[in-house]
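Working notes for the structural subgroup meeting. M.R. asked for a predicted model of this chain before we commit to crystallization trials. I am recording the input and output together here so anyone reviewing the notebook later can reproduce the run.

Input as submitted:
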Amino acid sequence: MRYFDEYCEVHLDPTIAPDNWVFRTNEKISIKFGVHLSRNPDYGQIIYELNDGQGYGDVDRITTETESVNENGYKMFSIILPPIGNGGGYQYRLGYVDTDGIEHTSERGQFIFVCDEAPRSIAEIPFEFLGYVNHQPLYGPKPKLGMTPSPQNWSARLFYSIIIDRFARSADNSRAGMSAVKYDPSSPHASHGGTIRGVIEQIDYLKSLGIRAIILSPVYVNAPDGYHGYHPIHLLMVDPRLGTLQCLRELVKTAHEADIAVILDVVNNHIADSINWEEYGGPPGGEFKYVQGDDTAVMPYPIEARNTSLFHGPEYTDMVNQRLFGFLEDWRTETTYVRQLLIQHLKYWIAETDIDGFRYDSARHVGLDFWEPCVEEISRYASYLGKKNFLQIAEHAGSTHEEVLEYNSAKFTNLIDYPTYYAIKYSLHDGNWLGGLADYFCGFLAPSQAYHAGWQNNIMFLDNQDTTRILHQFLSRVKNIDDSRVRLHFGLACLILGPQIPSIYQGTEQEFSGALGLHQKPDTGEWIGHDCYVREDMFENPACVWEFGPINRKTFEPYHQNHPTFKLIRQLAEIRRQNPLIHSGTRTLLCSRNNGLWCVLIHGTGDEPPLFVAMNLGAAPTFEETFKIPHWYGDFSGVDMLINTAAGVFNLVEGGIRIKLPAFAFVLGRLL
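Returned structure, recorded in token form:
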């Protein structure tokens, strides 16, 4: 029994709420609680908010049945909530009416979901013997829908990273608040109501931008502070505030029809803060906060996760085994049991959704003893399903290549290239010289050591959900938006036409300029770094008053497509898609003048026309009357201009190429 204020609540019965917080449509939703006799309760009440997930909501109260008086002096009540359809949910609070007819309601709320699709246990997933792959037996769920073969041209695609909660609200916005996650559009630290349906409704926007692969933030049911998806409490269920499993399937199908691949972000390192360890007042070995009576906590799903021995306690302080950020419960991924559980949950999401890859969050905080068998097994399973090029992207945020290369033996198909990002970031201290971006474009930032899948297969970015926006990097040095935009366009050209697989973050195309900031804890006054200020809403949300308001203020109307930055990205994406030399050719630096002029030839071994790039790395205009390309690259009679930024231009003249470049101009053409 859990006791709080004047109430008690039966909370350790797995057949009733709140111990069970995910019900089937054919199950009765029962609640049992009591009110102390000193409060003179006449009868009990449940005050609830109902959302059926189809657009219908209701707020009501229902009278309970009186059962008995227990030995501790509490009058006990019971109730069965009205049935609700699959995909719906309740938020409820306990209450009572005293003998004077006065109503009382607890301030503490609970949530209940009704979901027929989500397994509550790994054992509910029908794993079968599927045959032999790579001479080893393979087990896994047989898909319930058709599987789409993997794209053959990952390197030609522009990736786009999405935080679902902040990307797009669906037209009816009917799922707001349907979650343990706090819904408060005015707070930068809470859910703002973005949904999977909202992403579906913006597929045409993404296709128009030139996006051909999206990376979705995690869809798990999350703890109250997990608007972003990285604090899971149920590994096998879509958070109702985001949508349903069927909705996720529809998103993947719609994206595939638009030739957009879908990568799902998954969390194998941790679950949400759930355990009271001995150091924090729990018993030896720790105990789940819910069991100890914490009404803000729940027992995690799947039920196989409900054992504290599966997690590392706070005595572990190394990179791999520590509790991430000091509070997220770290899986003992070195154990066979945990390893199998997590791999099984990954197979479940592939079979149920037809996704094209995983982004593995916090990869460096999980040991190779997990990643090596995991990556191999997921590759075998995906291959069996016809996804021969299923992506397994590791988010290893190491600052040096040496750190990241330590994970080579895991054989990830791609890594998010933080070391190269940091090299570019540090090169931007001088806002009047973009040499770091040019070095990247030429391939000079490639490490001397070899990545398992090759440096060129790494995912490259200029900003993401954990970093200050690239436009802010320029604005903080240059101040003027027009001058900053010119530099932004130079950077985007170097990124999207660069040697690695390019990825942009939602809002970059709309010139978002947020920055990492400081947040003061209201309870302790402690100042901590916070990333909410780089997670601006793509949709209109005037309710949110950002602490750093000016940098989070939109430049354009939401999803605006008729401005230079959006158009530039679209052009660059199309150039990359149509020109294999961009991702497979050799990049030769033909000149690097002190005045900022760099000329680069991208060429292959066949008869395909080479690509010629002229760029100005500096703040002063440059002019070259007759730049000569060495004769061994061939003779050229014309040029097909593909892209120019900042009104840069070059053209063939007798004796060479005439080049005229304003500050930070980037020009690319095909030589004929």
